[in-house]
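As described in the Methods, two query proteins were run sequentially through the folding procedure within a single session, without resetting any intermediate state between them. The first query and its resulting structure tokens are shown here.
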Amino acid sequence: DKVLSRLKAIRGGKLNTAEFGSRMRGEGIFADQIRDLFRVSLKKVGLAKEGPELSTAHFRRPGGVQLDLL
């Protein structure tokens, strides 16, 4: 019951929401605490940095017709 009530608090009173863009987001004080804890943990293990800039310069578009899937 405690876990379910926390989930409802994070999701605006609902246990589950199927709205586009809201499934992996939360609101309220508990969601803020989880977000802050995650950011601190990323810094602690050295993953808070931006990744390298990616380039598509080496991508070669295959020529000819598309192959069959099966």
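Immediately afterward, the second query was submitted; its sequence and tokens are:
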Amino acid sequence: MGRVDVIAVDGSPQAHYAFNWYLDNLYREGDTVVIVHVAEYNIHIGLLLTDEYMHILRNKHIPAHLLVLQGDKPGEEIRKAAVKENASLIILGTRGLGKMKRTLIGSVSEYVLHHSTCPVTVVRHPE
């Protein structure tokens, strides 16, 4: 039996890169992928946004399912989803915010790193 790996996506190039990086570097046959998107306002937009990821996983015959959640604290929602799914690993991209911006607006990846109960891989997009 494989792992359950949560991949958090938000429509950004960084999330897309992290998704592809996971498939190329960490995915192992038998793993199940859970795509998690946290929609602040409109869940329907989240469903459209995640369609591409699910299509890729289906074409590669990778067991997967989707969680589109609503909330204004994406880091907390991702953490809770990982607990609910009994995740072995969380994958997410990072925008590489500077120290000042990160302090002012917070960082989803930083929150997940500090509050998750499972390992977290933060993938930085090469600029």
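The chain has one domain: 4-124. We note this only descriptively and draw no conclusion about the first query from it.
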